[in-house]
Amino acid sequence: MIAVVDYGVGNLFSLKSSLKFLGLDCVVTSKKEDLIKADKIILPGVGAFGDAMMKLRETGLVETVKEQAKIKPLLGICLGMQLLFDKSLEFGEHEGLGLIRGIVAPLSDDIDPSLKIPHMGWNRLRIIKDDPIFKYFKNGESVYFVHSFHAKDCAESVLAVSEYGTTVTGLVRQGLVYGAQFHPEKSGNAGLRLLKAFAEI
């Protein structure tokens, strides 16, 4: 079973629908016991980093997520990926979960001012380190991004990148913890295949 963490941040319908389409058993939950019972965990999220961390703390799930990430695969998606890092510089400085080394910084600091923020749309994903999550994915396939901040100082964990005025961290892994800056559940067939591979890890 895959537990999708529901902490009041974002619409989980697309993600749940994608998992169901793949025939995967999943539960959308804010209960510790469900995360403990699950085989895998997905941490979704949209919005502001500080607000999301506050809501995650309010659910009492921070320590549970950290403990479970040591023993089972976890996938953070979009803001959920950013929460995995040490800290974010979004509207101040906010501590993250510290599951992956690195920081989250404004994309606008690293790209030409003529490029639109947020970075929104389809971009090719270039694999730089092979991993089981790419079992059904071909190098250079396009995935769907929507973000204004990106992960930096995390070279040792980067599995794949994209380009948007700079090299954007697309997919990371540290131990059993994965993070996708893009939305697999909104990335068509390519995204479904990434979710399928994650479910098999």
Set out the fold topology.
Layout: E1 2-5, H1 13-21, E2 26-29, H2 32-37, E3 40-43, H3 49-58, H4 62-68, E4 74-77, H5 79-82, E5 85-88, E6 94-95, E7 100-106, E8 119-124, E9 126-127, E10 142-147, E11 149-152, E12 158-163, E13 167-174, E14 177-180, H6 188-200
Parallel strand pairs: 1-2, 1-3, 3-4, 4-14, 5-7
Antiparallel strand pairs: 5-6, 7-11, 8-10, 9-12, 12-13, 13-14
Defining key terms:
201 residues; Rossmann fold; four-stranded mixed beta sheet; globular
Describe this structure in words.
The protein is an alpha/beta fold and 201 residues long. It has one domain: Rossmann fold. Strands 2-1-3-4-14-13-12-9 form an eight-stranded mixed beta sheet. The chain has a four-stranded mixed beta sheet with strand order 6-5-7-11, with helices on one face. A hairpin with a 2-residue loop joins strand 13 and strand 14. It is globular, with a radius of gyration of 15 Å.
Quick structural overview:
With 201 residues, the chain is an alpha/beta fold. It is built from 6 helices and 14 strands. The strands form 3 sheets. Strands 2-1-3-4-14-13-12-9 form an 8-stranded mixed sheet. A 4-stranded mixed sheet has the order 6-5-7-11, with helices on one face. Strands 8-10 form a two-stranded antiparallel sheet.
